[in-house]
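User: Hand in any protein.

Assistant:
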Amino acid sequence: MGLDGRRDPARIAQIIKESGTDVIGLQEVHSESGGSSESHQIDYLTEATGFQAVAGPTLVRDNSRYGNVLLTSRKILSIHWVDLSFRSREPRGAIDVDLDIQGEAVRVIVTHLVLRSGERRFQVRRLLTALAEERTRCVVLLSDINEWLPVCHPLRWLDARLGWTKPLRTFPSFFPLLALDRIWVSPQPSLVSLAIYDTPLTRIASDHLPLKAVVRPSDTPLLQ
């Protein structure tokens, strides 16, 4: 949902195309059967961008799904899901895929953690358990971490496993004060650059500003 109260996948597709990225992690994607083409956001975004989509719905109803989505122009080698649900709270999860980047497998995880601190610690422990399975040399974690405090257990745990990531202020998009969104890249030398993708359109399309990382897994062409 944009700051103007509009749910507009066309401008999200425009941002994706203008950003020049190969892999995109999205949260809070809503897809509803029937109605206009824009109401099924996953189908709309794949058609508008030409990318493949991996859906990670966390809320599923009879005619709609809501949750995380990974979009990519790269070849998908495998798809996994990590259940991050805590007791009877709202279901949460992570998309966990291996992509072929010029012959090298790169693991990319997309997730959206909760606001409650205790539940968030539980979710990060689940992510760390999943990361213990070292399928690839290079790992990229894309997350709305929802961590308001700069020094806390979840951030320290992820930094210890994946390497420190620079906190960039992404929320709220009209006047960013908090680094709620993070990109971790392991090993750290594979991260070429990390910056906020700040344009007039990104400032209104969502209440969070997007992050853009440039990754070079080894001697392969850049992944963005």
Q: What stands out?
A: The CA atoms of residues 112 and 203 lie 20 Å apart. The first strand starts at residue 23 and ends at 32. The chain has one domain: 9-215. The beta strands are 23-32, 52-60, 64-72, 75-83, 93-101, 104-112, 138-144, 181-186, 191-196, 211-215.
